[in-house]
Write a structure and sequence with these properties.
Elements (H helix, E strand, L loop, with lengths): L10 E6 L17 E2 L6 E2 H9 L5 E8 L3 H12 L9 E5 L4 H11 L6 E6 L7 H12 L4 E7 L5 E5 L5 E6 L6 E3 L3 E4 H11 L22 H7 L5 E4 L10 H12 L9
Parallel strand pairs: 1-4, 1-6, 4-5, 7-12
Antiparallel strand pairs: 2-3, 6-11, 7-10, 7-11, 8-9
Helix pairs in contact: 5-6
The structure holds cytidine-5'-triphosphate and the ligand C[C@](O)(CO)[C@H](O)COP(=O)(O)O.
GO molecular function, one term: 2-C-methyl-D-erythritol 4-phosphate cytidylyltransferase activity
EC number: 2.7.7.60
Family: Belongs to the IspD/TarI cytidylyltransferase family. IspD subfamily.
Length: 268
């Protein structure tokens, strides 16, 4: 870790949008599914990109798109249509099989001048700019890996599956110490690069995606990869508006926020 980045240096954004959207079941990649009605209507990815570009610290963007030709072309056309002077600093690349593959592809494509990297799910399309700003500020303040998070409001039980598939409760977890993590997650570039190198069998890692080397599944978020190497992850306040559009119900909620102007974004 080399300490704080120069405060005047901007941040790069990896917007991962290459998922299939199986749980949404819209018959097309989730990033390309229309969200909103009338003048607010745009693909999920476009909402996410416009939202992220409200963060003035972002200077460079890599959109990691679904790998098929038609989807790539549609994403590239959306980028060309962006009303933002940073449009020329937005690249589109084809994603990989798993989210972590897509992040690694995006990271490799980010220009070397970028020393601070944000990784954001296109599926968290209505994330307020304040969340981006808090994450960037924390990295600039010397925190090498940062995640936004919200408190858990349900009582959370740990369960085990019996031989017949029926689940029984093993324990009730201490909710006051649990957080649901969101994106954008922010990193010093070298912290993220080392975490991904380890995932792929580099120094400190293990081949096959078992980042912690303990037989547990690969971490589903990038801060998890840092944790698995014993790195420190700092938590900043997230937002309910940064919820991930995963199911048809989530899409309805997001559309309702847009319809009522309650998308959590500042109005001019
Ligand atoms: N191979 C993958 C898988 C996921 N993602 C992205 O990672 C984010 C979080 O993933 P999720 O919401 O789970 O999206 P999907 O993988 O598309 O959803 P599902 O599991 O329902 O197919 C999304 O913006 C998704 O596009 C990606 O870029 N590349
Ligand atoms: C990165 C993430 O959005 C943080 O909550 C989440 O881990 C993505 O997981 P998914 O299972 O790929 O949706």
């Amino acid at each position: 870790m080399s300490g704080r980045p120069d405060d005047t240096v901007g941040a790069g954004l990896i917007l991962v949008a290459a998922g299939r959207g199986t749980r949404l079941g819209a018959g097309r990649p989730k990033a390309l599914v229309p969200l909103g009605a009338g003048t607010a209507a745009a693909p999920v990815l476009v909402h996410a990109l416009r939202g992220a570009l409200r963060c003035r610290a972002i200077t460079d963007v890599v959109v990691v798109a679904p790998p098929d030709e038609a989807a790539l072309a549609e994403v590239a056309a959306s980028v060309r249509a962006l009303d933002d002077r940073r449009r020329d600093r937005v690249q589109v690349v084809a994603g990989g099989a798993e989210r972590s593959d897509s992040v690694a592809i995006g990271l490799a494509a980010l220009p070397q001048r970028v020393g601070v990297v944000l990784v954001h799910d296109a599926a968290r399309a209505l994330t307020p700019v304040e969340v981006f700003d808090r994450v960037v500020h924390a990295v600039h303040s010397g925190h090498p890996a940062v995640t936004p998070a919200v408190a858990v409001t349900d009582t959370i039980k740990q369960v085990r599956s019996g031989p017949t598939g029926v689940e029984t409760v093993v324990a009730t977890l201490d909710r006051s110490r649990l957080r649901a993590v969101q994106t954008p997650q922010g990193f010093l570039r070298e912290t993220l690069e080392r975490a991904h190198a380890a995932l792929r069998g580099g120094p400190g890692g293990s081949e096959g995606g078992d980042a912690a080397g303990d037989g547990l599944p690969t971490a589903t978020d990038d801060c998890g990869l840092v944790e698995a190497r014993g790195g420190r992850v700092t938590v900043v306040e997230g937002s309910p508006r940064a919820m991930k559009i995963t199911t048809p119900h989530d899409l309805e909620v997001a559309a309702a926020w847009l319809a009522t102007g309650e998308d959590g974004r500042e109005r001019p």
